[in-house]
Description:
The protein has 220 residues and is an alpha+beta fold. It has 2 domains: 2-29 and 198-219; 33-187, Jelly Rolls. 21% of the residues lie in helices and 51% in strands. The chain is built from 2 helices and 16 strands. It has helices at 2-26, 199-219; strands spanning 28-29, 33-37, 44-46, 48-53, 56-65, 71-79, 82-86, 96-97, 102-121, 128-133, 136-142, 146-163, 165-167, 172-174, 177-187, 193-194. The longest helix is centred in the first third of the chain and has 25 residues, at 2-26. The radius of gyration is 27 Å and the shape is globular. The two termini are 12 Å apart.
Amino acid sequence: MWSFELNLKNLTNGALALGLGMALSTVTAGAASVTFDFTAEKMKRAKMLDFTQGDIGLTVSAIKTNPKDVTSSSKVLTKNFGLGVKSGKKDNSAKIDSKGAEETVVFNFDTDVTIESITFTKFIKRDDFGFSTSGLDALTGDVVETYTFTDDYTSNRFDVSAIDSFLKKKDKFKHSSFAIANITVRSADAVPAVVPLPAGGMLLLGALGALGFARRRKRA
């Protein structure tokens, strides 16, 4: 009798743990990420460009800051390789660069989002970028094909700038230039979706009830 109760107890506890694990793994789903792809756009150039992905709206603009730290507006443009800046009549690079003036692309979302990654194009080794959130400097980094953020930056505004990079061997700065192919974000206020427990989970819960009943009956 004691052996039967012990085995039944172990079986019940194991089934309970399994059932709880299944329930916890199926009741919620994470907030989905969305990617704004700027390479799919036709050639556009304007003070502001609007984009939409899912329920998230985005307005992109551009500014430039000269060596005297004077900031003025520029035109943002899209080509088949991504986002760039047109900061003047003589600016024909169609990229975001730091030559003459530090060019910045400003991302304004219609809701708070958490940025996950930026995909760059048209860059070379040792190009650098600056990143700010809500107008405040957050980090600088090396331009790579896909820059993935390891910290959570949540805001409705992010700025990405081309900044001069320092070459230690030559003891001087070099200009940076690049384009932005896409950015990936997720909504900051997204509520995880509730996922119904699968049929197998319901059968398991029923089996747990039967085991509990059998245990109580045996003791009686």
